[in-house]
Target: ABC transporter ATP-binding protein
Amino acid sequence: MLELKNVTTEIAGTTILRDVSFSVTKGSMVGLIGRNGAGKTTSLRSIMGLLKPKSGQVIINGTDMTKQGSFERAGMSIGYMPEDRRLVPDLTVEENIMAPAWACKLNNAEARLAWIYEMMPEVEAFSDRRALQLSGGQQKLVALARAMMTGTHLLLLDEPFEGVAPALSRRLVSVLSTLKDEGLTVLLSESDQSHSADLVDKAFQIERGSVEPLASLT
Model:
Protein backbone atom coordinates (compact mmCIF):
# COMPACT_ATOMS: atom_id res chain seq x y z
CA MET A 1 0.00 0.00 0.00
CA LEU A 2 2.81 2.43 0.90
CA GLU A 3 6.54 2.33 0.29
CA LEU A 4 9.29 4.89 0.81
CA LYS A 5 12.49 4.23 -1.09
CA ASN A 6 15.62 6.14 -0.05
CA VAL A 7 13.70 9.34 0.65
CA THR A 8 15.73 12.42 1.54
CA THR A 9 13.82 15.59 2.39
CA GLU A 10 15.16 19.05 3.14
CA ILE A 11 13.50 22.04 4.76
CA ALA A 12 15.08 25.44 4.12
CA GLY A 13 18.31 23.77 3.08
CA THR A 14 18.54 21.56 6.17
CA THR A 15 18.33 17.80 5.66
CA ILE A 16 15.55 16.37 7.83
CA LEU A 17 15.07 12.88 6.36
CA ARG A 18 18.13 10.89 5.35
CA ASP A 19 17.71 8.04 2.90
CA VAL A 20 14.51 6.78 4.55
CA SER A 21 13.09 3.44 3.41
CA PHE A 22 10.17 1.50 4.88
CA SER A 23 6.89 -0.02 3.75
CA VAL A 24 3.35 -0.46 5.03
CA THR A 25 1.47 -3.49 3.72
CA LYS A 26 -2.21 -3.37 2.90
CA GLY A 27 -4.48 -3.86 5.91
CA SER A 28 -1.71 -3.37 8.47
CA MET A 29 -1.19 -0.76 11.18
CA VAL A 30 2.37 0.50 11.46
CA GLY A 31 3.95 2.82 14.00
CA LEU A 32 6.62 5.42 13.35
CA ILE A 33 8.21 6.03 16.73
CA GLY A 34 10.57 8.86 17.61
CA ARG A 35 11.08 11.81 19.89
CA ASN A 36 10.11 15.35 18.93
CA GLY A 37 12.27 16.64 16.10
CA ALA A 38 13.27 13.17 14.90
CA GLY A 39 11.49 13.56 11.56
CA LYS A 40 8.06 11.98 12.08
CA THR A 41 6.03 14.92 10.82
CA THR A 42 8.40 15.47 7.90
CA SER A 43 7.95 11.81 6.97
CA LEU A 44 4.17 12.07 6.87
CA ARG A 45 4.26 15.42 5.08
CA SER A 46 6.60 13.91 2.49
CA ILE A 47 4.18 11.04 1.97
CA MET A 48 1.29 13.48 1.59
CA GLY A 49 3.16 15.61 -0.93
CA LEU A 50 3.17 18.65 1.36
CA LEU A 51 6.96 18.48 1.19
CA LYS A 52 8.80 17.39 -1.96
CA PRO A 53 11.63 14.92 -1.34
CA LYS A 54 15.02 15.95 -2.66
CA SER A 55 15.58 12.35 -3.73
CA GLY A 56 13.99 8.93 -3.44
CA GLN A 57 10.47 7.69 -4.14
CA VAL A 58 7.09 7.71 -2.42
CA ILE A 59 5.04 4.85 -3.86
CA ILE A 60 1.36 4.57 -2.95
CA ASN A 61 -0.67 1.57 -4.07
CA GLY A 62 1.91 0.83 -6.74
CA THR A 63 2.02 4.38 -8.15
CA ASP A 64 5.03 6.67 -7.85
CA MET A 65 3.57 9.80 -6.22
CA THR A 66 6.85 11.53 -5.43
CA LYS A 67 6.29 14.46 -7.78
CA GLN A 68 2.51 14.59 -7.56
CA GLY A 69 0.64 17.31 -5.68
CA SER A 70 -0.86 16.75 -2.25
CA PHE A 71 -4.42 17.05 -3.60
CA GLU A 72 -3.82 13.90 -5.64
CA ARG A 73 -3.68 11.87 -2.42
CA ALA A 74 -7.29 12.57 -1.47
CA GLY A 75 -8.38 11.20 -4.83
CA MET A 76 -6.55 7.97 -3.93
CA SER A 77 -8.69 7.52 -0.78
CA ILE A 78 -5.95 8.68 1.59
CA GLY A 79 -6.77 10.55 4.78
CA TYR A 80 -4.32 12.70 6.75
CA MET A 81 -4.59 13.82 10.37
CA PRO A 82 -1.95 16.48 11.04
CA GLU A 83 -0.34 16.82 14.44
CA ASP A 84 -1.80 20.30 14.96
CA ARG A 85 -5.27 19.24 13.77
CA ARG A 86 -5.70 22.17 11.31
CA LEU A 87 -9.45 22.52 11.82
CA VAL A 88 -11.20 25.59 10.45
CA PRO A 89 -12.17 27.33 13.71
CA ASP A 90 -15.30 29.11 12.52
CA LEU A 91 -16.78 26.07 10.78
CA THR A 92 -18.90 23.60 12.68
CA VAL A 93 -17.59 20.15 13.50
CA GLU A 94 -19.71 18.61 10.76
CA GLU A 95 -18.57 21.20 8.22
CA ASN A 96 -14.94 20.43 9.06
CA ILE A 97 -15.55 16.71 8.60
CA MET A 98 -17.42 17.24 5.34
CA ALA A 99 -14.93 19.72 3.84
CA PRO A 100 -12.76 17.07 2.11
CA ALA A 101 -15.88 15.33 0.81
CA TRP A 102 -17.05 18.57 -0.78
CA ALA A 103 -13.60 19.27 -2.20
CA CYS A 104 -13.33 15.77 -3.69
CA LYS A 105 -17.02 15.64 -4.67
CA LEU A 106 -17.50 12.29 -2.99
CA ASN A 107 -20.68 10.53 -4.03
CA ASN A 108 -21.00 8.59 -0.77
CA ALA A 109 -20.30 11.46 1.63
CA GLU A 110 -23.53 11.09 3.62
CA ALA A 111 -22.97 7.38 4.07
CA ARG A 112 -19.37 8.03 5.15
CA LEU A 113 -20.58 10.63 7.65
CA ALA A 114 -23.13 8.20 9.09
CA TRP A 115 -20.37 5.56 9.44
CA ILE A 116 -18.10 8.06 11.20
CA TYR A 117 -20.86 9.07 13.60
CA GLU A 118 -21.61 5.42 14.32
CA MET A 119 -17.93 4.91 15.07
CA MET A 120 -17.67 8.06 17.20
CA PRO A 121 -21.10 9.04 18.54
CA GLU A 122 -19.55 11.65 20.80
CA VAL A 123 -18.50 13.59 17.70
CA GLU A 124 -22.07 13.56 16.42
CA ALA A 125 -23.19 14.90 19.81
CA PHE A 126 -21.22 18.14 19.30
CA SER A 127 -21.43 18.19 15.49
CA ASP A 128 -23.16 21.59 15.41
CA ARG A 129 -20.55 23.32 17.59
CA ARG A 130 -17.84 25.43 16.04
CA ALA A 131 -14.37 23.91 16.12
CA LEU A 132 -12.96 26.75 18.22
CA GLN A 133 -15.35 25.80 21.03
CA LEU A 134 -13.84 22.33 21.44
CA SER A 135 -11.14 21.11 23.78
CA GLY A 136 -7.84 19.94 22.32
CA GLY A 137 -8.85 16.32 22.77
CA GLN A 138 -12.20 16.85 21.10
CA GLN A 139 -10.42 18.53 18.20
CA LYS A 140 -8.24 15.43 17.82
CA LEU A 141 -11.37 13.31 17.44
CA VAL A 142 -12.73 15.68 14.81
CA ALA A 143 -9.42 15.70 12.93
CA LEU A 144 -9.50 11.90 12.90
CA ALA A 145 -13.11 11.94 11.70
CA ARG A 146 -12.16 14.31 8.87
CA ALA A 147 -9.29 12.01 7.84
CA MET A 148 -11.70 9.07 7.83
CA MET A 149 -13.97 10.85 5.36
CA THR A 150 -11.50 10.35 2.49
CA GLY A 151 -9.19 7.75 4.06
CA THR A 152 -10.98 4.61 3.01
CA HIS A 153 -7.73 2.92 1.92
CA LEU A 154 -4.92 4.59 3.87
CA LEU A 155 -4.82 6.76 6.99
CA LEU A 156 -1.80 8.82 8.01
CA LEU A 157 -2.08 9.92 11.64
CA ASP A 158 0.53 12.31 13.04
CA GLU A 159 0.81 12.12 16.84
CA PRO A 160 -2.88 11.28 17.41
CA PHE A 161 -2.37 10.88 21.18
CA GLU A 162 -0.25 13.96 21.87
CA GLY A 163 -1.78 16.36 24.37
CA VAL A 164 -4.88 14.21 24.88
CA ALA A 165 -6.29 13.39 28.32
CA PRO A 166 -6.10 9.70 29.35
CA ALA A 167 -9.83 9.09 28.87
CA LEU A 168 -9.76 10.44 25.32
CA SER A 169 -6.54 8.56 24.59
CA ARG A 170 -8.30 5.33 25.50
CA ARG A 171 -11.19 6.34 23.25
CA LEU A 172 -8.83 6.98 20.35
CA VAL A 173 -7.21 3.58 20.91
CA SER A 174 -10.66 1.97 20.77
CA VAL A 175 -11.54 3.74 17.50
CA LEU A 176 -8.20 2.83 15.92
CA SER A 177 -8.62 -0.77 16.99
CA THR A 178 -11.99 -0.86 15.21
CA LEU A 179 -10.48 0.68 12.07
CA LYS A 180 -7.79 -1.99 12.14
CA ASP A 181 -10.43 -4.71 12.45
CA GLU A 182 -12.16 -3.23 9.39
CA GLY A 183 -9.00 -3.67 7.35
CA LEU A 184 -7.88 -0.07 6.91
CA THR A 185 -4.17 0.54 6.34
CA VAL A 186 -2.82 2.93 8.97
CA LEU A 187 0.52 4.63 9.54
CA LEU A 188 0.66 6.50 12.83
CA SER A 189 3.46 8.42 14.49
CA GLU A 190 4.06 8.58 18.22
CA SER A 191 6.82 9.83 20.47
CA ASP A 192 6.86 6.50 22.32
CA GLN A 193 4.88 3.27 22.33
CA SER A 194 2.74 3.99 25.36
CA HIS A 195 -0.49 3.96 23.32
CA SER A 196 0.29 2.13 20.09
CA ALA A 197 2.17 -0.97 21.27
CA ASP A 198 -0.97 -3.12 21.38
CA LEU A 199 -2.31 -1.71 18.11
CA VAL A 200 0.47 -1.88 15.57
CA ASP A 201 1.61 -4.92 13.63
CA LYS A 202 5.13 -3.53 13.37
CA ALA A 203 6.96 -0.32 14.15
CA PHE A 204 9.89 1.69 12.90
CA GLN A 205 12.18 3.87 14.97
CA ILE A 206 13.10 7.27 13.55
CA GLU A 207 16.09 9.11 14.96
CA ARG A 208 17.75 12.17 13.43
CA GLY A 209 15.94 11.55 10.18
CA SER A 210 16.98 7.91 9.78
CA VAL A 211 14.58 4.98 10.09
CA GLU A 212 15.21 1.44 11.31
CA PRO A 213 12.84 -1.41 12.23
CA LEU A 214 12.00 -1.39 15.91
CA ALA A 215 13.20 -4.64 17.42
CA SER A 216 10.49 -4.97 20.04
CA LEU A 217 6.95 -3.76 20.56
CA THR A 218 7.07 -4.24 24.29
